[in-house]
Amino acid sequence: MFEGIITPIVTPFHRDTEESLNIDAMKNLVDHLIDKGVSGIFPLGSNGEFHVINNEEKMQFTKEVITHVNKRVPVYVGTGACSTKETIELSKKAEELGADVLSVITPYFIRPSEDELITHYTSVAESVKLPILLYNIPKNTRINISKRVLKELAKIDNIQGIKDSSGDIDNLAGYIEIAKGTQLKVLVGSDSKILAGYQLGATGAIAGTSNLITEILVGLDAAYRAGDLSKAEQLQQEIEELRSVLKLGTVPVILKRSVELAGIAEVGPARGPVREPNSETDQRIKAMLSYYQI
Hints:
single chain; 294 residues; alpha/beta; globular; Dihydrodipicolinate synthase; Aldolase_TIM; Schiff_base-form_aldolases_AS
């Protein structure tokens, strides 16, 4: 675990009044990703719209994903919430359902102190036996896990990884330095920084773009591990065509529409208030898919 390309899957919804979970589409997406060689499936991340899914739906979706993956690859389940109490409740339930790893985002909306953050993560870790992956995404939470906090949390046996989506290569390098000599693994959470992160010592990446251009991401990982830096650099650059189009809408609506138009799975819309792309944006998406020959 904690290596290779892990896909934070989009959560498929029906185009009905309830924007209900589409389990069949999830199965199609998961099968496609595993067939393409991803190293893990990650439901209920940022691209999975965890922030607009209620807890009953979260556990229903988690159960369905774990059952369908059926141990083919590890399943990383996002269980973070604003309160320690709710995070512990979700983490325990995900553990009972058979998750392999728990991904715990920092609390958001509020800004806990460093000591409060250490207490939060310590309490969550003590409540379960599963490995825990810390999730750092300061552009969304306004909290950046400091080196001091990470040093303290790395002392806890089942805190075994951190995903850094800061986009700051110096921040990532700091985490990798702290991880040396510990059980902690560092995963890249910014798709544009995967190769740079690998060169610093990151062991894998949680890459939203792998929902669509899976072969490029898996190929980048394989090329680097095989020592083919030139190919890895080329594949890293190939991601930029998709990233330029993702900016045309609110996360993750463009990615979901791309997955649909590529014929991978009918993942449906993002939940409101996020709107579906208009016809002009659809044409931009189709041009991007043509670039990748999808």
